Amino acid sequence: MDSCVSRSLHAFVLPLVVAFGACDMSTAHLTGRATEEWTHSYPLSEGGEVRIGNTNGQVDVEGIDGSTVEIKMEKIARAATDVGARELLPRITIKEDATPDRVVVETARLGGILLGVSYEVRYHVRAPKNAVVNLTTTNGGIAVNGSGGKVVAHTTNGGVVGKSLTGGVEARSTNGAVNIEMASLGSSRISLRTTNGGVTLMLPESGKADVSASWTNGGISVSPDLKLDVTEHSRRSFEGRLNGGGALVELHTTNGGIRIRPRSAVNAEKDDEPHDRVRVPK
């Protein structure tokens, strides 16, 4: 695929010059490679925040028991030669700021225009289940599993995936799908948005929610296995109450479909099904 967006979606590794507005070279010829990694641990108070800021690369978070945050960071530099890649590694700077209530780890932006190189940083995080998780990346995906605190996940070129979540969720993408599975619903708001991609939300059958969905080019598919009473359904919007209503759920996409399914049917429906089927109450 030839476009800048397509390359970033499939590779998540961009030449550094791309960050400064250019997109005119492939990384296929960058045969030189160098890596560096570390694993750091930080204590975190009950309900504290873990914030990861990245530029190029994946961010993965797993919710765990306990009160310690463990972050594994992997730098990957590519250039025409191994020597060139090793010279790039020290310029990829990681900033850390840790307090008892908040752990912040960020990839610093590289200054200037660099040609003939690429890089990515991957973060693998194990955080207490009750922590607030705030994640951002530009070229890369975000995945969160088993978190019970609020999850904020923003990416530009990449998807957002959440599994077995129980807290509030704010997930955003520009070029990528947003797929969230809720293990339970409380009173916290769930907001899922993307511009170019689909939105899929998996809800527990017994959950209570007020659902509002909108799209520009696409449609909506609601599983009949959910007791979701439709209160409004038009060409580009949908509203309904799950089990009488409860948590506010907002779903939006510009170019893509929206699917709402029961959590028990994660693999039951095909990705290419029509996005225009809803169960309308009698």
Protein described:
The strands form 2 sheets. Strands 1, 2, 4, 5, 8, 10, 12, 14, 16, 18 and 22 form an 11-stranded mixed sheet that branches. The chain is 5% helix and 52% strand. It is mainly beta and 282 residues long. The chain is built from 2 helices and 22 strands. The model is unreliable at 1-25 and 268-282 (pLDDT under 50).
Précis, in short:
The protein is mainly beta.
Keywords:
eleven-stranded mixed beta sheet, 5% helix, single chain, disordered C terminus, 2 helices, disordered N terminus, globular, 52% strand, 282 residues
Blueprint of the fold:
Layout: H1 4-11, E1 14-15, E2 32-43, E3 49-53, E4 59-64, E5 68-79, H2 82-88, E6 94-99, E7 102-107, E8 117-128, E9 132-139, E10 142-145, E11 151-157, E12 160-165, E13 169-175, E14 178-182, E15 190-196, E16 199-203, E17 209-217, E18 220-222, E19 228-233, E20 237-242, E21 247-255, E22 258-262
* Percent in strands: over 45%
Shape: globular
Mean pLDDT: 87
- DSSP helix fraction: under 10%
Head-to-tail CA distance between termini:
47 Å
Rg, Cα atoms, Å? 20 Å
List low-pLDDT spans. 1-25, 268-282
- What profile does the largest beta sheet have? 11 strands, mixed
Which sequence of SSEs, written as H and E, runs from N to C? Answer: HEEEEEHEEEEEEEEEEEEEEEEE
Q: How many strands in all?
A: 22
Going by helix content, strand content and strand pairing, the class is mainly beta
How many H/I helices?
2
